[in-house]
Amino acid sequence: MLIIDSKDCENIDKALKKYKKKFEKSKTLLQLRERQHFTKSSVKSRTQRLKAIYRQQIASGKIEL
Asked: Residue 46 and residue 51: Cα distance in Å, rounded?
């Protein structure tokens, strides 16, 4: 649960803006989207490995964007 400390004289728009920033930083929306579909742990680790290989190839200069 997100709690926003707002002063009595603070504008509601500012408090809403603070809430939106906190919500975005907490990455709850990303977690919800991730939980919509189950992916096996072997598939997750494979995609992580492929991403790491791709990043390494870009860093070494084998692949140009």
From this structure: 9
